[in-house]
Amino acid sequence: MNRIRANSGNAFHRLLVRCLAEQHQPTDEEIDLVAGKIWHESYGSQTGQPWVEVVPDSVTHRQMIGAAKMALRPQLRCELGAG
User: Which residues are CB-contacts of 30 (< 8 A; sequence separation ≥ 6)?
Assistant: First the structure.
């Protein structure tokens, strides 16, 4: 799949639909790209810090990756909600 830039809304939405409607299992790269989009739309736009500068495995990085997984993997939301 072509690399999705953090500010590429159309590609982000296509990936989201693909994961939800077609039950596509996102790759680690796709999860990272969506995490970058979430970062950019929230904290990154406020702080000016690009996603690539967020320290991997930091609390912030893990939170954004977790949010991306929740957005792209609906079955994960169901499993977590059932507990």
Answer: 1, 4, 15, 72
pLDDT in tens, 34-50: 999 999 999 888 888 99
Domain assignment present for 8: no
**Domain with 47 in it:** 27-82
pTM of the entire predicted model = 0.72
Residue 18 forms part of a structural domain: no
Structurally, how many domains does the chain consist of?
1
- Is 11 contained in some domain? no
Helices (H), the chain: 9-21, 28-39, 45-47, 59-72, 74-82
Q: Please report the pLDDT score of residue 1 as a whole number.
A: 33
